[in-house]
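Researcher: Last one for today. Full complex below.
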Amino acid sequence: MRGALRTVLFAAFAGALALTIGGCRADLPADSFPSGAAVLRLALADDVPTLDPAAGYDAASWEFEQVLYDTLVRYAADSNELRPDLALSWGISPDATVFTFHLRHDASFTNGRQVTSADVRYSIERVINPKTRSQGVQYFLPLLGAADFAAGRTPHARGIETPDPYTIIFRLDKPDPIFLHKLAMPFAAAVPKEVVERWGEDFARHAVGSGPFMLKQWLSGQRLILVKNPHYFLSGLPKLDAVVALIGVNEELQWLKFEAGEIDISSIPPAEFTYVMKTPRLKALTIHHVTAVTSYLGMNCQMPPFNDVRVRQAFNYAVNKPKLVAILNGRGVVARGVLPPGMPGYDPDISGYAYDPAKARRLLEEAGVRAGFAPVVWLTSDPTMLVLGQSIQQDLALVGINLVLKPVAWGPLLDAVREPHTAELFLLGWGADFPDPQNFLEVLFSKEQWGANNDTFYYDPKVQELLTEASVVADPKRRYELYQQIQQIIVNDAPWVFLYHPVAYVIRQPWVHGIRLHPLRPARLDYIYVTARGAEGEQTSGETNQTR
Amino acid sequence: MLHYLIKRIAFGALVLLGASLITFCIAFVIPADPAVAIAGVKADPHTLATIRTQLGLDRPLYIQYVRYVWRALHGDLGRSYARRQSVTGLIVARFPATAALAVSAMALSLILGTLGGLVAGAYRGRALDNLLLIASLILVSIPVFWLGTMFLVGAAAHFRWLPLGGFDGMRSLLMPSLALALGSAGYYSRILQANLAEVVGQDYIRAARAKGLSPVRVMLRHALANAILPLVTLAGLDFAGLLSGVVLTETVFNWPGLGRLAFEAVFNLDIPLIMGTVLFSAFLIVAANLVVDLLYAWLDPRTHLA
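Model: Here's the assembly. Have a good evening.
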């Protein structure tokens, strides 16, 4: 009996092994492309959260969504200039409340159906519909009748008109000079209604758009394969035949794969950064740009002693920002205000707070803060954040502040900073979604955002008044003047210690060209091209778009 | 036997209910807002409030729990906040990779552990036994993530013998399986060596020797058959652990299994996915315990099921 059992067990064991391996192998995609095919191989640390443009609100999703789908307008490859996409032309009313677009006639979804204005309307209404639970709903609620549509009172949003298949008109309830930028976000990408309705919440796994690439395969946790859309309306794009993204490859493994030539573009692990920059061959292959992000030490303006502007200014003088940038191996630019370089309204003349511990001590003394005061700073447990926190801790110790670090996970950190009177200090950052100072100044410092994005609970009546005024000014010159004025008040009030603007680096193989880093968005894959590996070394200089 | 089975299955169901209750409570103790997890950090207060209502997060906790259990009983573990996919679907998609790794690692660790234990048992107290003792202690002590990284740097990156991580057939299975198996093999070999030392002094072994059987036959046919029994319990529980996903190994080797899925869920505070993976792991461990008990009774008829 026992002999028979062993035989059965052995057979089951071997069978299970064969089945699991065999089953998995059958699932593996055929990622072998014809010889000579231009295939770009990437590696991602985490799985792509989604490929549904109504759902994605992160760089990983947007990197692929922006080449699977089209929006009415889109950004140039490496600047914030808006270019036609599905729309050939557009007009804006002088008061920035009516936006009229004329669509191209040659755009079609990869299922063969032509893209019409009805598709654009459906896609935006889908974002507004609460059932979609889209993170982009806030950008389209100013459309006339959006609230009625969201509540199910009307079949369509009154503010979206489609007089013919190639014209779409948006009417807003108040002027919005940056509405065009909102239409360039992937949330506004056209999706085919019939495919969305067929797959429901699983549309992301069966993504169909009209962009330069189409989804071939997405194996959860393994790889994502996009292939060229042969019917894409712009001739010459995309330049690649396919993109294969390996999923779940941590930064260190990415680097090993890059060195082995298995992937074509990689991030640079902190441990390898100095080596790369000291090796001319590798340094020439790096591409970098200053991101539209500001990293800051937030101070809760409602919690004593941080309700005293002198204390907040003292902290600004006490923190040595160039040292933080040095800790980052130079991968940052010292911040002097809220807005990052390259953002419209950025003021290069703003002075900010130079490192001056003596002045900090004097201000703290005036404010009555005694030596030994021990505030708690909330930060994520990310190793880089911890090192930066320790550097700030050392700086503040020199002015008599015994900073206590409180590393927590991302979720609890966000929860804490949104609760009034909870987190007195916190290390965070903010990145822009579109190139307008409103996306920083109003979102982060208006009273309406208390409990949401205004995590310092900052309030200044003058700032509030100017924010309301600036939000509807369509004239860019006047608009940016107002925002510069607002920024100056905020810098003087110092609700943040303005730390640095991160500089992003990637490295490419010598045979990869055409990478253009965008200030706000992930690099577009449709402009990238590859040459034969034998031609390594060519064009390695002058390939970088160093925006610094 | 049937009575025993019914009792054990009922007990297992209770354990699973307990596991679901604990994970549910932990999910609500964590100070993180599920609405923010879905809507993103930039969402405005109105959007967050709408999502809370839609998810039923404004309803009493016990109602939310009963709804969760009811849906789980129907195979619906909810939808991931971060990925917006069915949790059941995600687990089903990742399980084959984990199963392949678990089966191969278990096979390797049993083969290597049995070989090591047999050799150490045969040469008990001699140099080879001592050498195997040191080797097994080293293997047990090496952290799997370090061993895995060394394999990657050496065998894959430097010598290019094997693929640099990923899940692509037999060749890609070798390094993660070996990294996982070596520690267990060292442990199993010590257990087996100790059991053999006990068994070889028994009368039936002396009788087998007296019959003139060869030492190899005595060892394999008579001593091993009894000394290996305790390994069944150990291996069964280890196997359940392997099937639940091995976070570090899967992370180091870019292995798309349940361990990495659970790790990513924790990292993103993706509560439905955390609860789903925990519940699935609990199910595997309960099932493995039951199978081990039944196997044990089958292999050793002296064991009574009650």
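Confidence is low (pLDDT under 50) at residues 22-30, 537-548 of chain A. Chain A touches chain B through 60 residues (CB under 8 Å).
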